[in-house]
Amino acid sequence: MKKILLVDDEPNNLQLLKQILKEHYQLIFATSGEKALSVVVEHGPDLVLLDIMMPGMSGYEVCEKLKANPSTTNIPVIFVTAMSEVEDEARGFDAGAVDYIQKPVSGAIVLRRVQTHLSLVRAKELDDNQRAAIFMLGEAGHYNDTDTGEHIWRMSAYARAIAEAAGWDHDIAERLELAAPMHDTGKIGIPDEILKAPRKLTPEEWQIMKTHSEIGSRILSMSRNPIFSLAAEVALYHHEKWDGSGYPKGLSGEDIPESARIVAIADVFDALTMKRPYKEAWPLEKAFATIKQDAGTHFDQQLVNLFIDIQSKILQIKEEWDAKEIL
Ligand code: C2E
Ligand code: SIN
Ligand code: SIN
Ligand code: FE
After folding, report:
1. How many A from CA of 320 to the centre of ligand 1?
2. Quick check: CB of 15 below 6 Å from ligand 2?
3. Is 10 a pocket residue for ligand 2 (Cβ < 6 Å)?
4. Ligand 2 centroid distance, CA of 17 (Å)
5. Which of 68, 125, 168, 251 has its CA 20 to 30 A from that of 201?
6. Full pLDDT tens readout for the chain, 327 residues
7. What pLDDT shows up at residue 41?
8. Distance CA 297, CA 162 (A)
9. Which residues contact 61 (CB under 8 A, 6 or more apart)?
10. Is 278's C-beta closer than 6 angstroms to any atom of ligand 3?
11. How far is the CA of 2 from the centre of ligand 2 (A)?
């Protein structure tokens, strides 16, 4: 059950809110601003309903203090107040409140506002957690690599641009951009001596290196979330080649998921244009030429055509990322 803190210096007002909310939420009470702040620290409520006019510390001050503290800043605050002037509302929002309920309160309105803001917090938390997980798995994939990590984010931006050019819906293209940074997560399972070798790999080392596709897909398949499912698919197939000569399964043509055919172009283009422990960065023209030359053997010809069509967009993305790298 979600916990709600009710703050009002008038016991009657607390009583009324209690009647409205008690069946749906666990309630905590405070009769002053000072008490409210200590109760927040002790009980960690999910939401605060806050009176404004109180002796001692006002609701505005309480709200400002909650918003200034990183450990309480994400708790939504709704003001419950008799003051109805517009400037009061503005001051409330300035203080960091998410909403306003006017006294005398209506039960239906209180319930709906509380419910709305609790679900908004949940959506925001999920989003933040997801981004954090993507970031960590992406970083894990190049943990032993010598590059600074821009590769995975830059190539993901390329992948999104290609997907959009291929007619993918905005949301699905964005999902690919979020999934793509995890394509090499499986490199976490490859020994340092292999990953960091400043030379061509031996045939034995190469066999081990190639297992990163399956390792990554196994890790990423542990979540059924759509972004991670897509990431697992991309991880498994991003080294397949159009002519069937890739790994791990040797799939060819459209048997290779389109997501992976897109990421293959983005990944190789970016790998070519950056320095690796085993190679120098290639000039852009040479990288484009190689992608074109390998269309129909390594890459999907139609996707390569789109990639060339959006060349200026690709270069724009590269410039934006190169600028960040210098900072
Ligand atoms: P990576 O460095 O991120 O490279 C991704 C893909 O970009 C490679 O997949 C390959 O298709 C392409 N690529 C990268 N560098 C070159 C290049 O110099 N020439 C050409 N023609 N293509 C290039 P691939 O080959 O399946 O390799 C997967 C991963 O295996 C690489 O990821 C890298 O981590 C490792 N790897 C590949 N070759 C070597 C090597 O000779 N030495 C070492 N130490 N690692 C290697
Ligand atoms: C009040 O503090 O008077 C209202 C809360 C309660 O009934 O426990
Ligand atoms: C290979 O493609 O078989 C070897 C990987 C490489 O060195 O680029
Ligand atoms: Fe890879």
Report:
1. 24
2. yes
3. no
4. 9
5. 251
6. 899 999 999 999 999 999 999 999 999 999 999 999 999 988 889 999 999 999 999 999 999 999 998 888 889 999 998 876 667 777 888 889 999 898 889 999 999 999 999 988 877 777 888 888 998 899 888 765 666 678 888 999 999 999 999 999 888 999 999 999 999 999 999 999 998 888 999 999 999 999 999 999 999 999 988 899 999 999 999 999 999 999 999 999 999 999 999 999 999 999 999 887 778 899 999 999 999 999 999 999 999 999 999 999 999 999 888 776 654
7. 86
8. 19
9. 33
10. no
11. 18
Give the number of whichever ligand sits closest to the CA of residue 216: 4
| Domain extent listing, the chain | 3-124, 141-326
CATH architecture, range 141-326: Orthogonal Bundle (1.10)
Identify which of 202, 204, 206, 282 to mutate to test ligand 3's pocket (most ligand atoms within 8 A of the CB): 206
Please tell me the residue having the least CA distance from ligand 2 atom 2.
Answer: 11
Task: Identify the residue whose C-alpha is closest to ligand 3 atom 7.
Answer: 200
- Using alpha carbons only, what angle is made at residue 245 by residues 176 and 304, rounded to the nearest 5 degrees? 45
Our answer on whether the CB atom of 22 is closer than 6 Å to any ligand 2 atom is: no
Distance between CA atoms of residues 6 and 56, nearest Å: 17
Whole-angstrom Cα distance, residue 284 to residue 160? Answer: 20
CB atoms within 5 A of ion ligand 4 belong to: 184
Distance between Cα 325 and ligand 2 center (Å): 57
Q: Return all residues near 179 (Cβ < 8 A) that are at least 6 apart.
A: 134, 227, 228, 230, 231, 234, 259
Side by side, the strands of the sheet bearing 26-30 are 26-30, 3-7, 47-51, 77-81, 99-102
Residue-wise pLDDT for 49-82, tens only, equals 999 999 999 999 999 999 998 888 889 999 998 8
Judge if the beta carbon of residue 208 lies within 6 A of ligand 1: no
The CA angle 159-163-165, to the nearest 5 degrees, is: 115
